[in-house]
Amino acid sequence: MIKALPASGHPARNARLAVVILAALLALMGLSADPAFADLSIPAASAPSLPAAVPSPVLGQEVDVAPVSGVVFVKTPPGTYPAASTDLERMFADPFGTLGEPAAEAALTKGQGFVQLTEARQIPTGSQIDAREGTLELTAAAGSKQGSVQTGTFSDGIFKVAQDSQGINKGLTTLSLLEAAFPGAPTYASCPGGKALDGSRARTAVLSAKVLQALLATAHGRFRTKGRFSAATVRGTKWGVRDRCDGTLTIARRGTVVVSDFVRHVTIVLHAGHSYLARAPSSRYGYATRR
Q1: What is the pLDDT of residues 187-201, one digit of tens each?
Q2: What is the enclosing helix (H) or strand (E) of 27?
Q3: Would the pTM of this model clear 0.85, i.e. be above it?
Q4: All residues at 6 or more sequence positions from 29 whose CB lies less than 8 Å from its CB, including other chains
Q5: Containing domain of residue 26, as a range?
Q6: Which of 179, 196, 279, 281 has a beta carbon 3.0–4.6 Å from 202's, enabling a disulfide?
Q7: If 0-12 CB within 10 Å is exposed, 13-18 middle and 19+ buried, where does residue 93 land?
């Protein structure tokens, strides 16, 4: 026996919740809620459904992400959420229609907005991704030809996604490592302190090579990974970036990587097997080495 639900004082939310509950009951009975399949005698098992396609990425606005292995979390900007494939799926994700309301947005700004990525989704640029325990595939629109895309797999870091939509960098997708994204996340505050080179009491991380976090990447297209002291730009290769207490280390594992050193204001070209450390300001020079 099904009891009537108490009224919540919000008719729109009650209606959305009723639709969700009805769809769930039909799903348990093996029936379809789609009017196009009015013949309720046909069990859902006789026509297995395929995952709904994710919308195509939009240049400078939306990218598509999908989990590859491990556990990956996503946090979209306040007032947004990963695009659902259908209206019904959207209602399951937010049955009370609270997303975008002040309380929900406040939760995002307090660092509580990370949700696990369990299937392919479209997310807005500006979203944050925690891939420290997993790997994801990211597909973005390419700026060279309408409808063309570029794809990469990324793992091991907490980063923010951005993309240029115009100018000479049109289509360039940037993944920036984030510091102190939430309590317990990697931060330079954890670096051991020492005296500055001028003998002052300023705390610096002049000697520590402690790795705070890394970002491993394999991509085809125009991508850039950005650490605290340098950025690495590629056109399809395999590379890695490590933010350390003493600087940002870039490693070219395959192909060519162009590194922009933010401290020395120089550009270094790395080939497979080479690495470059853009040293923190407390050190004199960055240096390139063969691994």
Answers
A1: 998 887 644 444 444
A2: helix 11-28
A3: no
A4: none
A5: 11-46
A6: 196
A7: middle
